[in-house]
Amino acid sequence: MNEPAKALPGASRAVAIGSGLTGTLAAQALSGCVSDVIVLERDYLPERPEPRKGLPQARHGHHRFYSGGVNAMEIILDKVTDRLLDAGAHRIPLPTGMLAYFPQGWYRRWPATHFLIACSRDLVDFTVRELVAAETNIHFSKA
């Protein structure tokens, strides 16, 4: 984490339910506040980026993160953007690298002010889970 977390008085363990993006990032955020974080997951966790039964929406085509979300995630999990890009994600500058057509015509391209990270949901979940699992006080457990 970029900023040191404050310990939770009297708490030594926290539990995050689910190893999707939200549960995994929550575990990372809690890891600086307690001595032990357990992530409970009922689904099979693949050893590489691949679809999971418990995450059916991952099969839908969609953009992953706009720059605001990426920046927020970097606060919780340092270097996650670099890892995603190394794993095959694409950083698309906006609006420079985007073609969009509206009823009024083509959207004009301007110098980049924002960006999005484009990749599969499977890649995001796997990469974030891999980084979080490297923390010594976070443990993934079958629910």
**CATH class descriptor name:** Alpha Beta
Strand order across the biggest sheet? 1-2-8
Shape: elongated
The CATH superfamily label reads FAD/NAD(P)-binding domain
Looking at the structure, the CATH topology is FAD/NAD(P)-binding domain
Annotation, overall tally of beta strands: 8
Strand content: 15-25%
Unreliable stretches (pLDDT < 50, length at least 5) are none
Mean pLDDT: 88
How many helices? The count is: 4
Structural class given helices, strands, pairing?
Answer: alpha/beta
Order of secondary-structure elements:
EHEEHHEEEEHE
Indicate how many domains the architecture comprises. 1
Largest sheet geometry: 3 strands, parallel
Helix content: 25-40%
Cα-atom Rg, whole angstroms?
17 Å
Shape-level CATH architecture: 3-Layer(bba) Sandwich
| Alpha carbon gap, first and last residue | 27 Å
